[in-house]
Automatic annotation (TrEMBL):
SUPFAM superfamilies: Nucleotide-diphospho-sugar transferases (SSF53448). It comes from the Bacteria. It comes from Kitasatospora kifunensis (Streptomyces kifunensis). This is Glycosyltransferase.
């Protein structure tokens, strides 16, 4: 029986220097002249689209240009055009040195029966803070799924999971629409697939992903991803709560100049008059989640959490810098377990 061809979506904005290499790597992973690569572009100039068009591929290609800005808007526009029958690969187009084997492993996991496969790569200890401090532990504590990189960017979906995501996006609460159109798309796809009963798996990779740093976009990523995270995580923790898993961190030196620059940037982002208390960080995460359960909007809950998140990242960068590799991983694992334990011992009301 001939299997349905795969397709790939490459959302981009102003990435003329990397789009060709990503396209070649994705094409090599697809390895099929029946496959389709969709370039979903929202760039400020035609340079990225021109670079994509000039890249020879075995697979068929489709350009969607002039799309509204926002990764989610671009991904959803491409999925609506595709109506796939086979696996769908989503690949970040700012990736440096993309490896065809990574994309092929994601597609193979879906072909083997997974509803969704996510890249699991170690993160440098000072980056990926939204994942390590919030998204991963909250998803694990509320769903029982410990997904190491829920915001991986490089993922594969089965056709049914892609279709379910489109239905869910079309029926999403209006307040979340802007978040789904932006950086909230990754966690939306994951939580939608999980809620629909699709099997979620991670493809373990040995090296960190080389791509543009996310730290400069921290406010936008938080504002768009966290309301989706708080809105779509299940309303009651699983019983029993999942055990905390080990955090794989990659080590690298951080110069004092770089560290101070990050701390200064975090201080500048803190809301005026923000107040902090002695409650552990996981308890603030639980409080924001309970706010949504109690009927407050996900955006309101995310706004409550924002200054505490900044304080958490600042504290992490300060205290973890002199720590050893194993101690950093233990700190994250302990916070992961603290959140799961806290959610498992409080009483939650229904929305």
């Amino acid at each position: 029986m001939t299997r349905a061809p795969a397709c790939a979506v490459l959302p981009s904005r102003n990435e003329p220097a990397t789009i060709a290499a990503v396209t070649r790597a994705v094409d090599a992973a697809l390895g099929d002249d029946r496959a389709l690569i969709v370039h979903a572009d929202a760039s400020d100039s035609p340079a990225t689209a021109t670079a994509f068009a000039a890249t020879p591929t075995r697979a068929r290609t489709l350009q969607l240009t002039g799309l509204p800005r926002g990764k989610g808007a671009q991904v959803l526009a491409a999925l609506r055009r595709l109506q796939p029958g086979g696996p769908v690969l989503l690949a970040d187009t700012d990736t440096l040195h993309p490896e065809p084997a990574v994309y092929q492993a994601l597609l193979d996991a879906v072909r083997a029966g997974a509803g969704m496969a996510l890249a699991d790569y170690p993160r440098f200890w000072d980056e990926g803070n939204l994942t390590t401090h919030l998204a991963r532990p909250l998803i694990a504590a509320t769903t029982g799924l410990d997904v190491p990189q829920p915001l991986a960017g490089d993922i594969a979906l089965c056709a049914a999971a892609a279709a379910d995501a489109l239905v869910a996006a079309d029926n999403a609460d209006r307040e979340l629409a802007g978040s789904l159109d932006g950086y909230g798309i990754d966690v939306f796809l994951l939580l939608t697939a999980a809620a629909a009963g699709h099997t979620i798996t991670s493809v373990r990779l040995g090296a960190p992903k080389a791509h543009a740093p996310s730290f400069p976009h921290l406010p936008a990523i938080f504002a768009q991803a966290v309301p989706v995270l708080l809105a779509l995580t299940p309303r009651r923790p699983p019983r029993p709560a999942p055990a905390a898993a080990y955090y794989r961190l990659a080590d690298r030196p951080l110069t004092e100049h770089h560290l101070q620059g990050m701390l200064t940037a975090l201080d500048a982002l803190a809301p005026s008059g923000a107040r902090y208390d002695s409650h552990p960080w996981p308890h603030h995460v639980a409080a924001s989640w309970q706010m949504v359960i109690g009927g407050q909007s996900p955006r309101t809950a995310a706004a409550y959490l924002w200054p505490h998140y900044l304080d958490r990242v600042r504290d992490w960068l300060t205290t973890a810098a002199p720590s050893g590799h194993a101690d950093r991983a233990r700190q994250l694992t302990a916070a992961h377990a603290d959140l799961a334990d806290h959610l498992a011992t409080v009483s939650w009301s229904s929305r």
